[in-house]
Amino acid sequence: DAPLLQADNIRTGFATARGQLRAVDGVSITVAAGETLGIVGESGSGKSVLGRTIMGLLEKGPAIDITGTVTFAGRDLASMKKSEMKHFWGPEVAMVFQDPMTSLNPFKRIGTHITESLRFHLGMKKDAARDRAAELLSMVGIPEAKRRLDQFPHELSGGMRQRVVIAMALACEPKLLIADEPTTALDVTVQKQILDLLASLNDSLNMAVILISHDLGVVSGRSDRVAVMYAGSVMETAATEEIFSRPRHPYTEALMAAIPRLEHPTHTVLQTIPGGLPDMTKPMVGCRFAARCKYAQEKCLTDDPELASGATGDRTSGAHEFACHFPVDTPEGMAALVANEE
Ligand code: SF4
Ligand code: MG
Asked: What are the GO cellular component annotations (predicted)?
């Protein structure tokens, strides 16, 4: 079966005064129908730009250079006209951002946000759309849904607003939901509720989800597969259980070490790995993680490791792939570690 989403060799560059910043530098991902893919990385790793590129939200032009292909349900996104994109956003793919106010108009009632989409995409009549909007609000766990329809965004808490945004995203029953740091602005208890909500919707609607987070703990229990991004590139990808039980990339290993052990890992600060991202306006020579890697050897400074599965070279979508010359938990990795400790 062809995957629902297939993004091949995506490169997204932004023109800056210092040259082109390669925010996404050759990323390929696939998402099957109903699957949840977690994309994890520090701020600046390119995960949000990747999400927006896949959505077709970034417009190619003098300031933005985009190459690579995105195929969704067998259709090439680049070939879609603007008028077609209007029917792509909503019924096919929807997106939830970190700040619910990005998607809400402060002067518009909650109900109107949802009914507009129902009427535009599904041609629903006013009353039917209103009933459906109330249904959607209940579905995302908003009590007294009917009464909420007439309220304005500022009358709701941050968590409730994010639920409204999710209800809006679900209005047209998209095949794929891209959630970019959907809970980062919320407190820990509400975070968990919203993440559980997304997971249950993924189950009950068989809707594929791309869950983007800086927090490995957030995606851990809620993704089928995880892709770890660093400096615009995927460092490692595997089934969630596999990546957690046997990380192969030193960056993934470092991220895991940053997860608090004793409590539920909902609040991980990835910035505990010393050092910062490389200058992404300069050509990348060697491994982009080398400056922060405790396994780095000379080879790492000259050869950019390719994303591949270590043992067999098998490149099916379920494979465990990593981009490293001295992977963790291998004789080469051990030898590199010993060499560096001497
Ligand atoms: Fe570290 Fe080298 Fe692997 Fe890069 S290729 S992650 S520098 S060991
Ligand atoms: Mg982001």
From this structure: plasma membrane
